[in-house]
Amino acid sequence: MSAHPTLLEPSFFNRDPRKVARALLGKLLVRKAARGILAGRIVETEAYLGENDDAAHAVAGKTARNFVVFGPPGFAYVYFVYGNHYCLNVSCLPDGIAGCVLFRALEPVAGIEEMAEARGFEIHGPDDLRRVSWLRQIASGPGRLCEALGITRERDNAKNLASSRSDLRIMEDGYRVRQVAVTPRVGISKSAAHPLRYLIAGNPFVTGSKIPSPHVQGAGD
DNA sequence: TTATAGATTGCCT
DNA sequence: GGCAATCTATAAT
């Protein structure tokens, strides 16, 4: 089923952010830490277009904060928000053209205990690692996944996510996404209506207070 | 179970 | 000075 993970090519990111956001679902975000591998499967993303997207940081033009979004594809744009949290994006489109994808939620795959500790959780017993309601607190949310993988602006901004020399990478293991859902983006006020949030339909690790039902059909109640 | 407010830093106007 | 691509605790139902 799952093949040995391979690195994504830089060309994977050299296209429209909407395409990249869709294609990233099911891929792995991997942190190579001193003590071992931390990894999560990408289950939710958002596309941020270029200078025509009022909700994108790129709308203000290139600044010291957002320059990575204007650079070559496949690089990490990490920003600090609300005084508390980091958010991770990957740049898209060729050098000189703005565009990126925000990582919004991961399903923990490897190094789960380390990630939980990084989030300040206490592991009460082995049962915790089997409970989805507990596991989904680890990386379901853009700020949470950064904390789980130890992602900060200082450490990771402008890092190449498509390089084998990087300790933060995006990889492919042959996982097949069955169905993708598309909704408006979260937490923005401008251009809020556009359907640019992508998630794996039915996956319990997407953001939101409710665990989605495994069967998406029949919205009768 | 859902709704609301507070935290807290740095970027942009 | 205002506000942000969020999370958590606390309150209300």
Overview of this protein structure:
The structure is a single chain. It is built from 5 helices and 9 strands, in the order βαβββββααααβββ. It has a single domain (6-200), classed as Methylpurine-DNA glycosylase (MPG) (3-methyladenine DNA Glycosylase, Chain A). With 221 residues, it is α+β, with helices and mostly antiparallel strands. Residues 215-221 have low confidence and may be disordered. It has helices spanning 17-24, 112-118, 132-139, 142-149, 153-156; strands spanning 6-7, 28-33, 36-48, 76-81, 85-91, 100-110, 168-172, 180-183, 197-200. It is globular. Helix content is 16%, strand content 26%. Strands 1, 2, 3, 4, 5, 6, 7, 8 and 9 form a 9-stranded antiparallel β-sheet that branches. The protein binds a DNA duplex (13 and 13 nucleotides) through residues 46, 48, 55-57, 60, 63-66, 79-85, 87, 89, 102, 104, 141-144, 185-189, 209-210.
